[in-house]
Specification:
Structural class: alpha+beta
Mean pLDDT: 81
Number of helices: 4
Protein name: SRPBCC domain-containing protein
Distance between the termini: 34 Å
Organism: Catenulispora pinistramenti
Family: Belongs to the AHA1 family.
Shape: globular
Helix content: 25-40%
Radius of gyration: 16 Å
Number of domains: 2
Order of helices and strands: EEEEHEEHHH
Low-confidence stretches: 105-115
Length: 117
């Protein structure tokens, strides 16, 4: 399985599902492909766990099996990813941080080019 950014010519992350236990747990490998330093870090593991808490739920994300010298670009984006997920789930709107807007603006520009507008 791979993930692609609209602005990237190729996938930026690849991995495979190791454990799929809906709606409680997803464990998958992750290999970052967005740059030489990220690629050199190799494959790590990301575990998503959801547990009920009253009438809500708690999401715990653990990114482990990282090499000791892994660059922060491989693990440092989780706050933005999780914040974006929370915003989208609560409001239906996308996050408006500079990083997330970069991808949103790229998508709008590509759609404008396709329609000639």
């Amino acid at each position: 399985m791979s993930s692609r950014s609209i602005s990237a010519p190729r996938p930026i992350v690849e991995g495979e599902n190791l454990v799929v236990d809906p709606p409680r747990r997803l464990v998958r490998t992750m290999r970052a492909l967005w740059g030489p330093a990220a690629e050199a870090a190799g494959t790590s593991r990301v575990t998503w766990e959801i547990e009920p808490v009253g009438d809500a739920c708690r999401l715990t994300v653990v990114h482990d099996q990282l090499p000791p010298d892994v660059p922060s670009e491989v693990y440092g984006g989780w706050p933005m990813v999780l914040s974006g997920l929370k915003t989208w789930l609560e409001t239906g709107e996308t996050l408006t941080t500079p990083g997330s807007l970069m991808y949103q603006n790229t998508e709008k520009n590509q759609n404008t080019e396709k329609t000639g507008g």
